[in-house]
What does this fold into?
Amino acid sequence: MSTTYRIDFHIPVKEIEPSRGYILEVPHALTVEQMLTALSERFVNVRLLMRYGRNGKPPVAVLVDGRTLALADIIPDGAIVRIVGAVAGG
Amino acid sequence: MKGGYFGKLLEVDMTDHTTTTRPIDEGFAYRYIGGSGFGAKILWEETGPETDPLAPENVLMFLGGPFTGTLIPFSGRHQVIAKSPLTGIWGESDVGGSWGDRMKRAGFDGVIVKGASDTPMWVELRDGEVIWHDAQDLWGLDTYDTDAALRPRIPKTATVQCIGQAGERLSRIAGIFTDGRDGRAAGRCGLGAVMGSKKLKAIVASGSMKQPIADPDGLKNAYKPLIPDMIERWNAPGYHDYGTPQVVLPCESLGDMPIRNWRGGTWLEGAEGLSGKTMAETILTGVYHCAHCVVGCGRQVKVDAGPFAPVLGAGPEYENLGMLGTNLMIGQVEAVAQLTELCNRYGLDSISTGSVVGWAMEAFERGILTTADLDGLELRWGDAEAAIEMVHRIGQRRTDIGFLLGEGAKRAARQVGRNSEEFTTEVKGLEIPAHDPRARFGLSVGYATGNRGGCHLQAYSHDYEGGPAWPEFGYPEPIDRFAVDGKGEFTARFQDLMSMMDSLKLCKFSVWCGINPEHHVEWLNLVTGWDFTVDSYMETGERLYNLKRMYNVREGISRKDDTIPLRIATLARKDGGAAGKVPPMGIMLHEYYDYRGWDEFGVPTQETLARLGLQNLVEPIASQ
It folds into this structure.
């Protein structure tokens, strides 16, 4: 049994067209931190963002159903996961 | 002076159409820096409790800082300052674009406008010269059309700063706009009405003068190597592609966005319709950079079909999307783009406008305002057409309700009565922006003690509540957004820092690009030849913040006014990312006063003023 997430990037991702999204398949459900690590292995810009992280938290918000998850939260199977760059409030 | 200043402010007397120059000596510059700091000292001296903000006695200032006119990234800004007709206290607004840069190129560190003309005028600054022009043909034009009308008459490199119909007709929520269709705004505090009261339609600047820099090579070597990193830090999270609208979804998720006049806790559908990505995929045509900006947060949009066409030029920023979008339950980005363009054209502050329309929508819902009161309009939540019509009326000051809403929420609610004051959302008369203190408790102290009233930019600390850490500014760990302890000191320190950035004239978004106080100090010393340290820099920020507070104290401001809107203080929302939360203001405010060295009434003590070298301010207050 694998776990599938649909990633909706709200950050620039050169490897794919962001509006098309990305399907991430992994052996088991991931925490937010694990997901960001997995995505940083696949996407240059996520890796870059991890570098700019403070206390291990990159400048992104990870949202599921409109809610921001904490780094330790486990993301449920089948979730649509929004990765939104978020540092400034405007 | 070795650098940073031409050493002169231009004084423009609108009454007799004359100008003089006021010299700046190095002692004054060192003590008050520029921009907000210069303005604080001059406004203290030139106005007082007897000054009617819309009378000729008020002074309207356009002030650069030592960074304005240099090539330092993020330095294309200037500060507009006057006694505010909206709040009756200290009024200031920080604006980007290119006008500040052009004013410096014209050879001036700032412009002080006094008196009032009998007839509309526009004033041109060009390479040290001042040229007066009749503006009767421009009076009545909106800001975009004013810019377009002036283009054939001015140098190609000139920048136009002007008011629209709202400022001409003395709306207390009118702003001052620059850069034509790029719509950069000194929106807050009703300063457009001050310009209108002086019958100054536009002030145009151009030139080729270069202000001296003490160590130009050292300066270049200091900032230039940092530029690639600045750009990367901005672009990687998507701010180039999506701009400030990028934070719509995260802010909605935190319970930080205004929804249904600050009653709702969540509206995901609306936020999705207004997100940065939605805008990029629908109406975005380009990105706008202020002068010497290396990142470009501004949105350029086009709507050329559908019910909300036409729109062309400046697009909605986060604040527009919050105040004119979710606050009014309008979730179509094209509609908010149209509302934004109307605010820009009429010359209205989009934050205050969204706030008063939201208040009116709730008053209509409650039956306090009827269709008859609204001259036939049914002002319902989510009705973009009705909101658009109302903004037309406010901008044109047309119909009783349009005129009334143009007076700002506090005055409107006082006139309407029937407990409608309970759901205005202003502090000291200034409508609060699209960030909710129930989602970030420190914001409540920032709003309560902001010298210009309810404002997130006077402290600009909210993003660090629940956001990233800032070890370079003493915060190695992220700050818990619902924590109470420490928020007083946290807010005060950020206010001191922002007071300096508003005086140097450095964009606040630079903090997200790796620029820290150490950089500010290094650059300031290289520009001026001075010897600031981070400690003396922060103490200067504290002095300036206290000077502005003392201006307000002289106007009668005290702890009684250091509040947050009743709705925010008392209504715990049922859902969303800040459900059940209200900020415990009293505890945090007490800590804030303690840290500041203010007494229990919110007045800086004599010891505090003496420590900051402001003891000379005590006597004028005591004598009143």
Notes: Chain B is about 40% helix and 15% strand. The CA atoms of residues 598 and 604 of chain B lie 4 Å apart.
